[in-house]
Batch of 2 targets.
Target 1
Amino acid sequence: MNVIEVERCKTGIEGLDEILNGGIPRGRVIMLVGGCGTGKTIFGSQFLYRGATEYDEPGIFVNLEEHPEKLKQDMLSIGIDLGKLEKEKKLIIVDASLSRMAFKTEGSEYTLSPEQFSVDSILALIKEAAEEIDAKRVVVDSFSALDTLIETKKMHVGMSLREDIRRALLGINYRLQSMGLTTILINDVVGEELSTHGVEEFMVDGVISLKYQNVGPDSGRHLMVKKMRSTGHSENIHTIEFVPGTGIKILSYS
Ligand SMILES: Nc1ncnc2c1ncn2[C@@H]1O[C@H](COP(=O)(O)OP(=O)(O)O)[C@@H](O)[C@H]1O
Ligand SMILES: [Mg+2]
């Protein structure tokens, strides 16, 4: 039997490509789940930063959580210079932060006003941005913010929210894959859950979970690959560390 080796998108995160047998399968949609402060935004920024600087793969950061300037400042504090990438046209930050819904501000070219805010308009903006810099990677921070939008706009009358989320994710996956992008969808979760609605993890090609346990014998920060279609991967819980100047590093992965 012939085994076809899939093409990989190297994350550049120390140890992660090793435990994924070479990287994330290219063109796939991966969900990154974890509670607050577990390192999801750092992971996403590092994925784009390494991609642009080491593998010549420009990227798009879709920012639904906070002001882009704040994102850049936070990431710079750990040594990930997103502003520099922007200037070099290796990164476009799509500003669709939910805070804009409350305060209407003048934005840059890749900005959505509250009236324009929808899953479709975000996808259209990603497409435009991806074509401009020939992007190969995209990070959406976060899908949880998008699902708030799906909830408030209630897309299909008579359908459950779960079904709405499922359909939205099918559409997002299909469109991003057609653009040739390898995607990290960030999902904020509470406790041990892998998703908010119990369907998201089934709709994506892979799930990576980040955890922070502050008490007990297992205390510390951990990463685990819960699912990754079309590749073998480590099934262990890996201890991680935040390293100034780099970002996330997996401590033991051999
Ligand atoms: N400059 C830094 N040096 C070391 N650790 C940092 C630095 N900046 C942030 N962190 C760590 O990263 C955490 C935030 O990571 P972040 O990716 O923003 O989390 P999330 O997006 O999952 O909420 C902080 O709580 C802190 O523990
Ligand atoms: Mg975050």
Target 2
Amino acid sequence: MATPPFGPVRLLVLQPTPFCNLDCDYCYLPNRDDRSRLSLEILEAALERVLESPYVNGGFTLLWHAGEPLTVPIAFYDAATECIRQALARRGLPPETIVQSLQTNATVIDAAWCDCFIRNGIHVGVSMDGPAFLHDAHRRTRTGLGSHGATMRGIGWLQRRGIPFQVICVLTADALDHADTLFDFFSGHGINTVGFNMEETEGENAQSTLERPDGERRYKLFLERFWQRMAEQPGLLRLREFDGIASLACSDERLQNTDMNAPFMIVNVDARGNVSTFDPELLSVQTEEYGDFSFGNVLQHSLAELADTDKFQRVLAEISSGVERCRQSCAYFGLCGGGAGSNKYWEHGTFDCSVTQHCRYRIQLVADVVLDGMEKQLGLTAA
Ligand code: SF4
């Protein structure tokens, strides 16, 4: 039976429901109309499977994600928090072993939800795309209405209640000419921690708007302008992409892998108890070659049993070979760790490959801008 060095588990992604109250046109998730819900029985089983596994070493984050987590009732999170507390207590582990977090479109956040976050110690991430003309172009309801107003109302509640949050902003092609607008929007609304997710060709989203000949050039100009604004007005905004590359560049640390391509650093469980590992985006998609990327179900299988399945071993071998290709061929490997399997699979039909459009945007172009900007700040190259 497979045992460490897999893990350690750093993230347990749980799907409270596949349902989402929005219908964003770039969403990769299937089954967004499916209102099924994670039961407490499955939650308890998922916690037990992780805590009993040989892959746990220390604490981890439990992320409620994939579907809109706030379309289940507040009472669900109260019951879930109690379930987590009991699971930890049974093993003599302190409550802080598991930190809860969720990623929401914020459209239904109100006073009662804020109370729930505070009461249950749930950290909040908000998905929103900046000003209304960018946000509402893609983030719409099923009847085609923009969601910007509702999202900003939810953000207002978080801010009034002093609940910290980060924003994930999806960049589509139409955002790339608006670096100043986005910087001014976020900093002007007191949103000081932002991550850019590039629109991806993945799952239900058959083609990203960034797959255009001038996409990379425009994105690099966008990033350079964002870097410049952050240098001109330091302290207003932190950008996840710049922070990640800059902290590695300033240290001796170089990555050998990522949580996305190393087994059981991330464990993903859907609302029916199906369980997977590697990156969370793999759990919700179907492919011709593998079917889905579920390796078992928490109601029947331990994590170590999953690791012994043929499917897991095939996926692991293919992902590992792809990481090795990256290590051998890519100058950015130490800043990247070999990328995410889902993007490799969706772009090339295999995990056993290296460069993708996603890694060009997420790692390589960001690294070029950050390293160039740092050199200029040090006066090593012309400003
Ligand atoms: S940047 Fe791309 S090609 Fe380079 S290591 Fe990362 S995933 Fe591989």
